[in-house]
Asparagine synthetase domain-containing protein (Marivita geojedonensis), 518 residues
Amino acid sequence: MFEAQRLWKDHWGPFQDTFRYQYVLSRETESLEGFQHYRGRDWNLYAGPELPMVGLQDQGGRTIGAVIGIAVGPDVLLTGPVVTLPLDTESTDFWDAFETYIIDVAGRFAFMMEHAGETRFYTDPVGMIGAVHSKKDGHVAASPLMAIKRPLEPNPKFDFDVIANKGGKLALFHTADAHVRRLKPNHYLNLDTFEEHRFWPRDEVFAADGDKVLNIYDEISQRARFNIGQIANAFPCAMPVSGGQDSRLLMAFAGEHTSSIQQFYTHINNYATRRDDAIGRALCNAIDIPHDTHDKRQFRLLRWELKHSHEKYKLTLGAPSSLPKEYINGVVKGVPDGHVILRGHQTDLLRAVFVFQPKERWQDPDWQLERLIIVPRHEFNEEIAAKFRDEFMAWQRTLPENAMSKAADFMFLEVYYNSTVGATFAALWRHFYVSPFNSRRLIALSLSFDEAQRRKSEPVFDIIERERPELSLVPYDFELPASLSSIEDTRLCNEITRKRRRQTRRRLSRYAQQSVPQ
């Protein structure tokens, strides 16, 4: 019995309902009622009842493993009882071919692959599916308490009071348990040895000449649109919209698939999200689609519901932490249970959100450790830095030379995201959260632009103007005056956005001229 099962209380309801998006890999046959079961050569893969699981075969019809989660391949969503991948088990370059194939897979997923007596485990680019492993215990799972069959041994490197009460975070691939580790993104786990091996980046060139910019914009938009369409046409989907840039990009990418998304919404938790709601409604009006407001004043949780949710979250997360606001105030109920939530994660690379320092400081670990919020930033000091500095540098040394040219971005992708969405998404049981932008191909394309361009959000503004210019007319949160009613003044909005739109059109015109053959 896994530790999460042992700690489960029957009055919370069926275990499999709350762990419906989690999974376990075990050499043994496990008792997990309601879970799907894939029996491999040496390993058993168990997936919660609502976590998609698909068997895989090569072009000759030979079994090669399984994929869990939502995975959009380069040509089609991987769905159905069995999918054929463009691989040949009789080829000597089987693993290389698979690692080339997975570059174009988008979503939130993991592959268990079997070939030539070896079993490997691969995940999406940031580990959004949730992936922890313990060599001591011999399991891989979505969360720590599903990877052990013993009481948790507290990780001595962290202050759990800081995590529980001050917002501190477990980071650098640690979990709350001393023996359970997060799988490093873009590494596969050899299930025979429990050793991690980096397989990506490969030979990508993270740069773009001016005459290639529009082509890159086109490829980003086409791939993102395809991914959204494949997901939205297969699952009931909802998309949160706000005053920021990421959700607006997703709306621009959605294009003809917009009508397949069942709900566009904004949660209102405070004044900032009330601004998000006003701008989100204006964005939806601009493209003539409905917008739903989920105001915390309209929702109510009974005291026992909230208590149970707090207790369950400690088990699903496997660490002391506070529930997300939407689970506390009930606005999460505004989206129907079981929906897939389309999120904009990784689109933030187009604005270099974690490049706070110049390139000459990218190999300096301390400012990056501070950004991981292991402790609140005002409590970060030399003692904390010294405790984690060597681990950070050990991770950074795994980056190939081409990735070192984007070292700050890769810290954000592989270290920060892994400890945030990589931990929390699997722990949330009401909806399945996924980014249609979460593919290695789209990440590489986004990193083609230099930091100066991205810090000014130029790729974001350019893509939205090209794909859905009516969205450019709506002010962003940073442009909108304090008065929320100003969003309803068309003349004022045109005036507020005029300079940005004019600069964007001029920039696009310049790129178009550079793209013309001489």
Observations:
- The chain is about 35% helix and 15% strand.
- The CA atoms of residues 343 and 435 lie 5 Å apart.
- The first strand starts at residue 23 and ends at 26.
